[in-house]
Specification:
About 80% of the residues lie in helices and about 0% in strands. The protein contains seven helices and no strands. Helix 4 runs parallel beside helix 7 and helix 6 runs antiparallel to helix 7. The protein is elongated, with a radius of gyration of 32 Å. It starts with 6 loop residues before the first helix and ends with a helix. The model has no long low-confidence stretch (mean pLDDT about 90).
């Protein structure tokens, strides 16, 4: 049944009908079956092949829902870990920023049009934050056995600061996008009114 609706069959059928028209016009003569079949075959060979359907990938807004769910699981993981006060403060600032960026609403709508931003959030939630905290937890025990090395708390604070700065840049880019959108709408209204 799929062949009946294919480009090859439809093109071949159209040329076959043209062959019948030639037959009724008296141009095909006694070889009319060969002309009709030959034109059908030529049309079927010349027609472009069927295009495979484009894969249906989830859009960034659907990916944001998955990142939100992962962020909820990350919050449960982080709640059970005791961190030094400075690192705990940096982690709180980072999670508040992540919460604001992942909050459903107009920020999520803007972020849903930015696949790179969704990737940045996804990487922070699924990889960077858990790895930084887990590495601190595992390294803390070893640092007690080797005095004189740089404390793992300092590394954790730096990592959390770098992640916070990266997400701040993302938030600033989203703000700039909205500001440009507002400015362009203002220009459009000014141009329209003359």
């Amino acid at each position: 049944m799929a062949y009946m609706e294919s480009r090859k069959n439809l093109t071949g059928g159209a040329l076959g009908v043209a062959g019948l028209a030639l037959t009724f016009a008296g141009l095909a003569g006694p070889y009319w079956p060969v002309v009709v079949v030959g034109l059908y075959g030529a049309g079927a060979l010349l027609a472009p092949p069927e295009r495979p359907p484009v894969p249906d990938f989830p859009d960034p807004s659907a990916q944001l829902d998955e990142v939100r769910a992962d962020f909820g699981r990350l919050g449960g993981y982080l709640a059970g870990i005791e961190l030094p006060p400075a690192a705990a403060g940096r982690l709180t600032e980072l999670t508040e920023l992540l919460t604001a960026l992942l909050d459903p609403g107009w920020v999520a709508e803007i972020l849903g049009r930015d696949p790179e931003g969704v990737h940045t959030l996804s990487r922070a939630v699924r990889q960077d934050v858990p790895e930084a905290v887990d590495t601190y937890v595992r390294t803390r025990w070893w640092s007690r056995l080797t005095p004189g090395t740089e404390p793992p708390e300092r590394h954790l604070e730096r990592q959390l600061t770098l992640l916070h700065d990266e997400l701040e840049r993302l938030a600033a880019a989203l703000r700039d996008t909205e500001a440009r959108r507002q400015e362009s709408h203002t220009r459009y209204l000014e141009d329209r009114s003359g």
